[in-house]
Amino acid sequence: MQNTRARMLAAVAPTGRTHPLLADTDAPREHAEPHAGPCPTFRDCTVTEPGHTDHYAHDVLAVLDERNTSTVLDAGMVALSDDEPRAVVCIGVAEFTDAAAVHAKTAELRRMLDQVDAMADRVFADHEARG
Ligand SMILES: [Zn+2]
User: Kind and range of the H or E element at 38?
Assistant: First the structure.
């Protein structure tokens, strides 16, 4: 498989339209939707074109830096129609093809973030102590 993330990023061109989840929520919907999102196949897919076969969500889950200019970490999904059909969840540059692998990595990330909190407590306490 080629680099799924690069292909996903290449496939994601701005449409100039407001995402349905960000649109005016008072506007009447044309159809009753069985899923939370606009895609009938993948609930997390953000593609709105009817009949689309390449599914993805990008820029939906992201943590930005302190100036809100760069991405610290993001996550998304992609399921393209051209390869063997399969779905991928991306965390940063890592790609996962099953939920257990994602859960293992997010658990690792949680442990790491706890360590970052502890490090920050030590660093700023030590900084205060040195005067
Ligand atoms: Zn879709």
Answer: none
